[in-house]
Specification:
By secondary structure, this protein is an alpha/beta fold. It contains 13 helices and twelve strands. The chain has two domains: 257 residues, Rossmann fold (3-Layer(aba) Sandwich); 64 residues, Beta-grasp domain (Ubiquitin-like (UB roll), Roll). Bound molecules: guanosine-5'-triphosphate and magnesium ion (MG). The site of magnesium ion (MG) has 5 residues, from helix 1.
Length: 346
C-alpha cells in the first residue's frame, strides 16, 4: 500500500513526509525518492487500549513515498523519470504550494499548479491509451477491450480524469498494468504558511478538486512538522495560538487510508490491542489470514463485536450477556471497526 507524495518542486512534500514519519530528511531542493512507514492514527485503538491496558498496542500502518519535484526545468512539469516514479504509486497525494518559497520565483498559485499537474497526467495517460488502442485495433483484440480504451480516450480528450468514469461504464480489469495516472485515487493537500493554516480552502479550488474526483484539505507542513516534534501539552497551546483545533496530519493520513478503500478490524486482549488493515469487502476467512495463515486454513467461525456495540456495553462479557455477540461464518464481510475473535482448528 504505497502512496506517493507528488507535486512541483519546492511545494513542501519532504516537509510533510518528515512530519508524518518522524524522519529528518533534509528539505529544500530535490534529494532522492524515499519510502517511509506511517502510523494511522485511530481514536478507537486509543480507547481500546485504555480499557484493555495491553502489553502492546499496534496501530495500522501505511507507506508514503516522497518523490522530489523537477528542479531547473524551464516550465513546471514532470519528466519521464518523474512520471515513472509516480506510476508506481497506488494513490497520489498532490502537495500544492500556497506559501512564499524564497527559493522559487513567483507567488504561489495552487489553482494553476493543480491544473498543470492534471494536464500533465491527462496527457501522459492519453498517450498510453492511444498507443494501446492503435495496436488493439490492428491485432483485432477483444472488442470489449477496444470499447474500454475508446471510453477512456473519450474521457481524456474531454479533459476528464479516468477516475471520473463510473464503474458501470468501464471494466477496470483492462487498465491493469498500464500505470494510468488519472485513475489513481487523488488527495490534494494545499500547503499554507503558518498564519493562513486555519483559513478554509477557496471555494473555487475545492470545487475543482471535487470535480476531478479527488479529496482536498488544507495544512501547513511546517506547522505539522513543528507539532510532531512537541510534547502533547505544548501542542495544544501552539495549535490554539494559530487558531487550529487539531493537527491536520492525522486527518491527512486517515483520508489517504480511506481513499485506498482500506478499513481496519481489531483484535483485543491483555497481550495486545491491534488494528489490522484490509480492503473493504474482505470476508472473514481472508481477514483471519491477515493475522495468521493457520487461522485462514483452519477457520471455523468469527465472533464479532462492532466497535460501537463494544463501547455501548463496555466489556466482552456484557456484550455476550446482552446477546449482542455476532457469530459469523467464513463469508461474512468484515466491517470497519469490527472486533474479531477467530475460532480455528488446525
Ligand atoms: N513557510 C512555509 N515554508 C514551508 C512550508 N512547507 C515547506 N516549506 C519550506 O519550503 C522549502 C521546500 O520544502 P520541501 O519540503 O523541501 O519541498 P519539496 O516539495 O520536498 O521540494 P522538492 O523535493 O525539491 O520538490 C523548505 O525550505 C521548507 O522549509 C510551509 O508550510 N510553510
Ligand atoms: Mg523533497
Amino acid at each position: 500500500m504505497k502512496i506517493g507524495l507528488v507535486g512541483f518542486a519546492g511545494s513542501g512534500k519532504t516537509t510533510v513526509f518528515n512530519a508524518m514519519t518522524g524522519l529528518d530528511v533534509p528539505v529544500g531542493f530535490g534529494g532522492e525518492v524515499r519510502l517511509g512507514t506511517v502510523r494511522v492514527p485511530d481514536e478507537r485503538i486509543d480507547r481500546l487500549r485504555e480499557i484493555f491496558r495491553p502489553k502492546k498496542t499496534t496501530y495500522a500502518e501505511m507507506s508514503f513515498c516522497d518523490i522530489p519535484g523537477e528542479h531547473g526545468a524551464e516550465k513546471k512539469g514532470l519528466s519521464r523519470r518523474g512520471l515513472q516514479q509516480i506510476r508506481d504509486q497506488e494513490a497520489l497525494c498532490l502537495v500544492l504550494r500556497d506559501f512564499d518559497n524564497p527559493a522559487l520565483e513567483g507567488p504561489p498559485d495552487p489553482m494553476g499548479d493543480l491544473e498543470a499537474f492534471h494536464a500533465e497526467c491527462v496527457f501522459a495517460d492519453l498517450e498510453i491509451v492511444e498507443k494501446r488502442l492503435d495496436r488493439a485495433r490492428k491485432e483485432r483484440a477483444d472488442a470489449l477491450e477496444i470499447q474500454a480504451f475508446e471510453r477512456m480516450q473519450e474521457a481524456l480528450e474531454a479533459d476528464r480524469p479516468l477516475r471520473s468514469i463510473p464503474e458501470s461504464e468501464l471494466d477496470r480489469k483492462f487498465l491493469k498494468g498500464y500505470g494510468l495516472l488519472t485513475d489513481r485515487p487523488l488527495l490534494v493537500a494545499v500547503n499554507r504558511d503558518e498564519d493562513r493554516a486555519a483559513k478554509p480552502m477557496p471555494e473555487e479550488l475545492a470545487a475543482r478538486i471535487c470535480d476531478m474526483g479527488g479529496a482536498g484539505l488544507v495544512l501547513s507542513a511546517s506547522v505539522e512538522a513543528d507539532i510532531a516534534a512537541m510534547e502533547p501539552e505544548e501542542q495544544e497551546e501552539f495549535l490554539a495560538d494559530l487558531g487550529l483545533e487539531t493537527p491536520a496530519l492525522g486527518r491527512f493520513i486517515r483520508t489517504a487510508y480511506g481513499l485506498l478503500d482500506l478499513i481496519s478490524f481489531f483484535t483485543v486482549g491483555p497481550d495486545e490491542v491491534r488494528a489490522w488493515t484490509i480492503r473493504r469487502g474482505t470476508n472473514a476467512r481472508r481477514a483471519a489470514g491477515k493475522i495468521h495463515s493457520d487461522l485462514e486454513r483452519g477457520f471455523i467461525r468469527a465472533e464479532v463485536i462492532p466497535y460501537d456495540v463494544f463501547m455501548e456495553y463496555g466489556s466482552e462479557a456484557a456484550v455476550k450477556e446482552a446477546g449482542k455477540l455476532q457469530v459469523e461464518g467464513k463469508d461474512y464481510i468484515v466491517q470497519d471497526g469490527d472486533i474479531l475473535h477467530v475460532r480455528f482448528n488446525v
